[in-house]
């Protein structure tokens, strides 16, 4: 439904968006994820009409939107600060956009009531924004931006101002509302957990470029670069050189005198190419004795143990000096654990647990 | 299109009623006095052209200002009065601002209102109030004679002392407000930390409070100094015939002597004199703003 | 630091005594029976009576009021536009000159402003009177209004305007429906400031007024030059009373609103 074609945005010398081409489909929940300053907000503001691309075109439903001013676009935005009008009541805030359309009075009433029901705000209709809590304000902002039936709803860090617990509840609410209304949502966030929870597809951005666009599980399991692997969740990186060993199977040599690691990875590598093995801590098992039938097993010394209640993270130093994190569920009482600080342990994982990435 | 129209309204207004008048002052300051109406020469004449017009202008009036010692004495005395009265205003204002900032939080809005209230009251009336107090039969003399400190009434009204009192009184709120806002933001734990590290009360004040309220002091001092330099009402009501202030000289030159070119030249020089403190003040404000960001 | 120290209490007492005693004396002696302003001779309101009979003062008061209402209203409109242009206008030709012209009158000595405007009015052959005073007052008051309003606009959350545009407002609708109602308190205080400055002004009015229009400050100044008089005391008392009532009301209203807002925010968190 939305098509960015070679879009570039420059502010003087600074390039915020760098020759970017993406597609966003109808009814999708699309997340733009990246650190602050990566250009994700600029991208969204171009969709809303507050910025114009320096080069390239943006099409919405087949129509070039460059000449359309923000107030004529079938796109609405939910602002990071919510931008609720402090002098108007909740009801008037939601009705604000509808009144601009010269909608008949009773249609406005119906639509506002519908939005109030959807966001469970019926009781607060007559209150002013400062008379309601942060979570309620967030819902008013959502209701206001949805009231006009936009083809596309933009959400700029919509949950940034809420505390952690409320944020988690609200994430599910957002998904629920998106499903009910069938609107296309584009969300901007720097919180990877939030993007993974709500979105059907995630675009990871850095320095004005899209690094990877994929579903949350693919982003997590098979990142296409060290940057993505490192940005999303916790990851161990082991450096080495690849040697093809059958289709999609490689033997990665990583340290003199140690057996190469067996990896199955979709990314293609040539013989002797430098590469990184990226593996998530929860996919590395830890044991006191050498495990029997493991694809890969290496020995190391425990440097540190972080006890998190349900799980513990072990920091294990390899002979190379590199430190690998391994997570294990605490199924037994901590006193009955078989290993502790300074103990030598074995780390093991399967060939499919990690992914090989180029430099 | 609409945007330019919007910009044009206040822009043109200020050009016509601020910049153009000032250009006229500059021009007249370079003209010669004439017994005519308007009383100066040359008049601008399109027929003669700009070149001929400019040829008639000269710096005669400015030369005259340096020759007649009335003027440079007036400038010097204005500077002196402004400096001394700024100092006294600071001396009077700082303890008040300090007391306000240290007062219980629920009093502060009321104290603030009490400082602002005179600011909204007519300047003229506040100066006038002192005429009844400072005159020979005034309340101050009555009070001092009653207490027996003096036996003969002091002559205060129509002297420079009265001018100082008037300036300190009327400009005090300008001094108090910026200092108060600097002191109010000052974190009380800083003083406690200083005392904890071995400062006495007094040295904590000198080493912590004063440096941290420096911006307020500077802002307040300029807010007093700059307008006092061109002050007219106070010297003409409370000052005597020997009180020389440039605002008063300009007024008399214009209304009594009707020497427009000289009055204009006086104005131009006064403005040049003000440029330095104004630039310094602006820089201080900018620095403060940057520090806050 | 809960209890005030001895030093602070003394400095506050002395400071406020210095600020208020002259005005209190002024008010007391407006009720003096005697013509001598410095000797008490019994209570009387006769000077108020005489003031009300004084045709010249009443005329001057009327002129002053007219000038103040017109010039402050005009100054508020122009000053608000100027502030909006300065804060939101982006770059345009001569922006530096424009902001310079906004700030310069604030530090310009009144004698210079007055002189330059007078020379302009004579130069273009404009008859001096109420109209010229209004022009002069509008010019310097609009700068004060613009400073007050622009300091509010700087802290204004720009996304509110963007939200209005996003919801279908044109730029002028966004200003009228969102920006203006929110900055209204600043605009009102700008108006009040402009109004007071106009009421107060002696120097600029003296330069720009003609024989047909004398304002109250000019009248008071020429009376006061000859010495103190109980009639002026009475007039001053009335003016002080009006200002006092105004300022106290304003601060009570603000205090009440702030308290109300705080209370409602507290309640909002609890629900």
Structure write-up:
The complex is a heterotrimer of chains A (359), B (293) and C (271). Chain A is an alpha+beta fold and 359 residues long. The two termini of chain A are 34 Å apart. Chain A has helices at residues 40-48, 90-100, 105-118, 134-146, 164-181, 192-198, 216-221, 226-231, and strands at residues 2-11, 14-24, 29-33, 55-60, 63-64, 75-78, 152-156, 184-189, 201-206, 209-214, 236-244, 249-253, 261-264, 274-279, 285-287, 296-307, 311-317, 323-329, 344-349, 355-357. The radius of gyration of chain A is 25 Å and the shape is elongated. The mean pLDDT of chain A is 89. Chain B is an all-alpha fold and 293 residues long. Chain B has a two-stranded antiparallel ribbon with strand order 1-2. The model of chain B has no long low-confidence stretch (mean pLDDT 85). Chain C has 271 residues and is an all-alpha fold. Chain C has eleven helices and no strands. In chain C, helix 3 packs parallel to helix 6, helix 6 crosses helix 8 (171-200) and helix 7 (158-166) runs antiparallel to helix 8. The two termini of chain C are 35 Å apart. Classes of the chains: A alpha+beta (359), B mainly alpha (293), C mainly alpha (271). Chains A and C meet through strand 6, helix 2 and helix 4 of A and helix 7, helix 8 and helix 11 of C.
Quick summary of this structure?
Helices cover 76% and strands 1% of the residues of chain B. Chain B has helices spanning 2-29, 49-56, 60-67, 69-102, 108-120, 123-134, 139-147, 160-184, 188-196, 201-212, 214-229, 233-238, 246-255, 260-292; strands at 32-33, 40-41. Chain C has eleven helices and no strands.
Percent strand of chain A: 25-35%
Shape of chain A: elongated
Rg of chain A, Cα atoms, Å: 25 Å
Low-pLDDT runs of 5+ residues of chain A are none
Keywords:
heterotrimer; A: 359 residues; alpha+beta; six-stranded mixed beta sheet; 20 strands; C: 271 residues; mainly alpha; 11 helices; globular
């Amino acid at each position: 439904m939305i098509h960015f074609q070679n879009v570039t945005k420059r502010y003087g010398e600074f390039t915020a968006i760098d020759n970017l081409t993406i597609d966003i489909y109808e009814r999708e929940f699309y997340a733009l994820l990246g650190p602050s300053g990566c250009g994700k907000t600029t991208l969204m503001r171009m969709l809303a009409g507050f910025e114009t691309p320096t080069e390239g075109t943006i099409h919405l439903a087949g129509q070039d939107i460059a000449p359309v001013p923000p107030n004529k676009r079938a796109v609405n935005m939910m602002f990071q600060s919510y931008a609720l009008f402090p002098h108007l009541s909740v009801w008037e805030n939601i009705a604000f956009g509808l009144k601009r359309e010269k909608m008949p009075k009773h249609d406005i009433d119906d639509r506002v009531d519908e939005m109030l029901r959807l966001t469970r705000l019926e009781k607060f209709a007559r209150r002013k924004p400062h008379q309601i809590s942060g979570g309620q304000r967030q819902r008013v902002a959502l209701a206001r931006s949805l009231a006009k039936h936009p083809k596309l709803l933009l959400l700029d860090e919509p949950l940034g101002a809420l505390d952690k617990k409320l944020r988690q509840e609200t994430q599910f609410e957002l998904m629920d509302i998106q499903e009910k209304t069938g609107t296309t949502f584009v969300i901007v966030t720097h919180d990877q957990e939030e993007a993974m929870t709500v979105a059907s597809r995630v675009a990871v951005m850095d320095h004005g470029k899209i690094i990877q666009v994929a579903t949350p599980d693919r982003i997590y399991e098979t990142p296409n670069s060290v940057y993505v692997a490192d940005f999303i969740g916790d990851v161990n990186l082991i450096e080495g050189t690849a040697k093809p060993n059958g289709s999609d199977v490689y033997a990665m040599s990583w340290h003199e005198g140690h057996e190469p690691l067996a990896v199955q990875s979709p990314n293609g590598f040539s013989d002797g190419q430098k590469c990184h093995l990226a593996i998530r801590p929860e996919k590395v098992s830890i044991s006191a004795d050498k495990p029997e039938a493991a694809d890969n097993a290496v020995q190391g010394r425990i440097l540190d143990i972080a006890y998190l209640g349900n799980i513990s993270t072990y920091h294990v130093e390899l002979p190379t000096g590199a430190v690998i994190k391994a997570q294990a569920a605490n199924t037994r009482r901590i006193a009955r654990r078989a290993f502790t600080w300074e103990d030598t342990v074995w780390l093991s994982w399967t060939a499919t647990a990690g992914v090989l990435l180029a430099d | 299109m609409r945007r330019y129209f919007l910009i044009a309204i206040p822009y043109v207004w200020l050009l016509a009623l601020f910049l153009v008048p000032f250009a006229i002052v500059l021009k007249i300051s370079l003209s010669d006095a004439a017994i005519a109406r308007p009383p100066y020469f040359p008049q601008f004449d399109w027929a003669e052209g700009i070149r001929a017009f400019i040829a008639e202008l000269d710096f005669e009036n400015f030369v005259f200002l340096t020759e007649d010692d009335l003027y440079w004495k007036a400038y010097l005395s204005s500077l002196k009065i402004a400096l001394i009265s700024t100092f006294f205003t600071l001396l009077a204002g700082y303890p008040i601002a300090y007391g306000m900032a240290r007062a219980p939080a629920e009093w502060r809005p009321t104290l603030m209102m009490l400082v602002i209230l005179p600011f909204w009251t007519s300047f003229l009336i506040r100066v006038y109030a002192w005429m009844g107090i400072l005159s020979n039969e005034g309340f101050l003399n009555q009070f001092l004679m009653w207490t027996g400190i003096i036996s003969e009434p002091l002559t205060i009204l129509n002297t420079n002392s009265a001018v100082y009192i008037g300036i300190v009184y009327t400009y005090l709120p300008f001094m108090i407000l910026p200092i108060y806002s600097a002191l109010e933001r000052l974190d009380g734990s800083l003083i406690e930390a200083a005392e904890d590290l071995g400062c006495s009360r007094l040295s904590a004040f000198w080493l912590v409070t004063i440096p941290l309220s420096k911006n307020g002091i500077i802002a307040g001092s300029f807010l007093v100094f700059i307008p006092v330099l061109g002050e007219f009402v106070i010297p003409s009501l409370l000052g005597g015939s020997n009180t020389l202030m440039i605002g008063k000289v300009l007024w008399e030159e214009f209304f009594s002597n009707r020497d427009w070119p000289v009055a204009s030249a006086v104005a131009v020089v006064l403005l040049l004199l003000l440029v330095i403190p104004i630039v310094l003040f602006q820089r201080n404000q900018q620095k403060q703003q940057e520090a806050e960001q | 630091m809960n209890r005030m120290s001895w030093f602070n209490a003394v400095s506050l007492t002395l400071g406020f005594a210095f600020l208020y005693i002259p005005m209190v004396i002024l008010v007391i002696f407006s009720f003096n029976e005697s013509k001598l302003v410095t000797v008490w001779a019994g209570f009387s309101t006769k000077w108020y009576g005489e003031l009300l009979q004084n045709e010249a003062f009443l005329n001057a008061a009327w002129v002053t009021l007219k000038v103040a209402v017109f010039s402050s209203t005009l100054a508020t409109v122009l000053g608000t536009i100027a502030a909006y242009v300065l804060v939101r206008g982006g770059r345009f030709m001569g922006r530096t000159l424009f902001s310079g012209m906004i700030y310069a009158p604030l530090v310009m000595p009144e004698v210079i402003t007055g002189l330059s405007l007078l020379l302009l009015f004579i130069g273009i052959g404009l008859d001096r009177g109420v109209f010229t005073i209004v022009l002069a007052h509008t010019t310097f008051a609009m700068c004060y209004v613009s400073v007050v309003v622009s300091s509010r606009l700087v802290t204004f959350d720009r996304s509110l305007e963007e939200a209005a545009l996003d919801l279908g407002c044109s730029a002028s609708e966004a200003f009228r429906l969102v920006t203006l109602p929110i900055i209204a308190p600043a605009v009102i205080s700008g108006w009040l400031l402009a109004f007071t400055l106009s009421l107060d002004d002696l120097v600029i009015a003296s330069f720009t007024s003609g024989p047909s229009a004398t304002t109250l400050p000019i009248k008071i100044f020429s009376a006061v030059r000859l010495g103190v008089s109980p009639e002026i005391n009475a007039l001053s008392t009335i003016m002080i009373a009006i200002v006092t009532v105004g300022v106290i009301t304003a601060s009570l209203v603000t205090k009440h609103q702030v308290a109300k807002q705080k209370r409602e925010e507290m309640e909002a968190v609890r629900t």
